[in-house]
């Protein structure tokens, strides 16, 4: 037996706390492959391609990157996509008129308006102007309502991707204490609803923490699962979780770095401090991000199948 092999065995014996690294990238790749296959079968039977429309207003760097990758993902799985890139001074009325024209186009299965929108546009009004049937982001008030009532709906992409990861990796959730840090409409709030509802993953006791939470650490130390979505690099430190907790890191922030790119991507969780303490963790990059992208494809395909009665 080689020396290094013995070392690995000894490490496992004396450090049973080796964390499972949740490979969102690999999982998304395999699930996207399944979507691609399914789409190809529909097309071979004479159906049109699924079609996602996206609207991007302004030139926020991160939003541009996200929309570009959504376009590439559509291409990969055989969806058509149309991206409307509008200048930041676009009026709310013009944006609403474009949304209405897309709502009326029965060749389009999904519509997303990339957030954040410029300040002069009312985001809530915009998301509620999308036809709930093609609201594949699941942001419309009707779809959020359905989620809270556990009715069939589009679960927004990030929470959906996280649920699939928890399921695929068999993370126990029933009766567990889940602390969600961040209460955004896009991640924190829907996540808290999903983790507390019946079924698996779910049945957790959920605490939502946010900027006004006092003594955050006292909450996170009690958690079996911590989901952190605050957009602050390395916010969740090693001393904030108990041994064996599972950590889901939603954050992804560019920070300056001394490398060829000039930056590196950092999560909300301090991976190096947490990895030896937790039972499972999603890395950044390669964790939640790719699964979010998969979530949008899944929802678009769901809308397409509903429209075409497939
Ligand atoms: N901005 C950040 N995340 C999202 C998302 O999932 N959908 C949209 N439309 N905008 C976002």
- Which CATH top level class of the largest domain fits? Alpha Beta
Distance between the termini: 55 Å
The helix-and-strand class reads alpha/beta
Q: Shape, please?
A: globular
Specify Rg, calculated over alpha carbons. 21 Å
Q: What is the typical, i.e. mean, pLDDT?
A: 95
pLDDT < 50 runs, ≥5 residues: none
Strand fraction band? 15-25%
The order of strands across the largest sheet is 1-11-8-7-5-6
Helix content: 40-55%
Task: Examine the coordinates and then state which fold CATH places here, giving the name of the CATH topology of the largest domain.
Answer: Rossmann fold
| Tally of helical segments | 11
Bound molecules: guanine
What's the CATH architecture of the largest domain?
Answer: 3-Layer(aba) Sandwich
Q: How do the strands and helices of this protein lay out in sequence?
A:
Blueprint: H1 3-14, E1 20-21, H2 24-44, E2 51-57, H3 61-77, E3 80-86, H4 92-103, E4 110-113, H5 123-127, H6 141-148, H7 157-168, E5 177-181, H8 188-196, E6 205-209, H9 216-220, E7 225-228, E8 246-249, E9 253-256, E10 263-266, H10 271-274, E11 280-281, H11 288-307
Parallel strand pairs: 1-11, 2-3, 2-4, 5-6, 5-7, 7-8, 8-11
Antiparallel strand pairs: 9-10
Helix pairs in contact: 2-11, 3-11, 7-8, 7-11
Bound molecules: guanine.
Guanine (GUN) is lined by residues 112-115, 137, 157-158, 186.
